[in-house]
Structures are given as structure tokens and as C-alpha cells.
Amino acid sequence: MAKLTKKQKEAQSKIDKNKLYSLEEASALVKEITNVKFDASIDLAVRLGVDPRKANQMVRGVVTLPHGTGKDVKVLALVTPDKEAEAKEAGADFVGLDEYLEKIKGGWTDVDVIVTMPSVMGKLGPLGRILGPRGLMPNPKTGTVTMDVAKAVSDVKAGKIDFKVDKTGIVHAAIGKASFSADKIAGNARELIDTLVKMKPSAAKGVYMKSIYLSSTMSPSIQLDPKAVQ
Q1: CB-based contacts of 46, cutoff 8 Å, min separation 6
Q2: Which of 110, 139, 157, 227 is paired with 148 by a 20 to 30 Å CA distance?
Q3: What are phi and psi of 129, to 5 degrees?
Q4: pLDDT tens, 143-189?
Q5: Residues of 73-104 as b/e, b for ≥16 C-beta within 10 angstroms?
């Protein structure tokens, strides 16, 4: 087992492992225990009482974080020529179609989100093996396949993220940066948690929010009190 560094020991000493923290307490504490030299991501991990193997218990959706993600999200708009101008005006970093499809075929995936139109999805199908594993395949459920390209691009740039419960029943999401104020971290976390509560599948029985942890890049996790945030 790897030895903890002095900074890691110091960070862990500030967390009471026997305590369930409020969202406000955890948001302030996560800033205090983050001591890396870069602007670390703040992550939320929520364990849900669902069985993701069953279609009627799958939890997947989108949420717009009120204070943004703190990240400069690079957006590729794969659109027909008549939609290029609105995609550019909305802030898309890359706009086009066939030339970018060829680049992707060659292995280029230097973007965070791809927005496209329903009529283009047929061309993207063969690229699923490249885009799928990287989480880049556009999906109507997350609003990235739409005729309103400008709105889709603007939403992503403003802080819209998509989330999906993994096979172990956990939703992981980056909800901000360590440079955010504690209030902004708490606000973004609450928005995601509230969205998850609203999306509780009717087939899910028993305790829905089993555990919630807040952490930053390379920091220990802080356990929240699920009852206090619902």
C-alpha cells in the first residue's frame, strides 16, 4: 500500500470519518483540503438504490449547473452548411461536417461535446466505435441531436452536463472547480442532487439515495448526509 504524503495526511486529518456532513460544510471543507498546484475539479459521486441492468431503473439525464463547470468546453457542431452560421454564433469551437467526419475516422477526438442534427446521425453511426467509448456520441436524450443547434451549443457552453448511472449504481459528475466559492460548489451539487431525486424510477424500491461523496482531484472524499440534501 502506497504511503500517504504529508499533504494527504494533513487533508485526511481534517475529515471526521464518523460524521455525515451537510452540503454547505462539505463544500467549504473540500476547498480547504485541496492543495494541488492546479485548479482541481470538484466531483460528486452519488450511489443510488437502483439496478442499472433493468431498463426501468436506468437513471440518465442532463442538468445545467447554475454556476457552470469552470471548464472551457470544446464543442464540435457537425451540421449542414445552412446551420453553420448559427452554430458559430452560439460559440461552437469547430463547425463543419464531412471534413470533421474524416478527421474523426482518422482518430481525432480533441473535443468535449459533439452537437449534431437528426439528418446527420446516419453518417455518425459508423463512427460509434470511436466516439462511443469516449462518451462523445450525440444523443437526443441529452439534447445533442437537435434542429435547434444554437441552443444546444449555448447550453453546453453555459454548464450543461449529462450524467448516467454506471453498472455499480453510481452517478459520477464533475460539478465545478476548486477555485469556485463554497456557495457555488454547493449550488451546483444541489442542482444535480435535486435532478436525481426528481428522476427516481418508480420501479426503484427501498432507499434511493444510499450515499453521497464530495471530493476534488487527488483529495480524500467527504461523505454527505443523504437525508439532509433531499
Answers
A1: 170, 171, 192, 193, 196, 209, 211, 212
A2: 110
A3: -70, -25
A4: 999 999 999 999 999 889 889 999 999 999 999 999 999 999 999 99
A5: bebbbbbeeebbebbbebebbbbbbeebbeeb
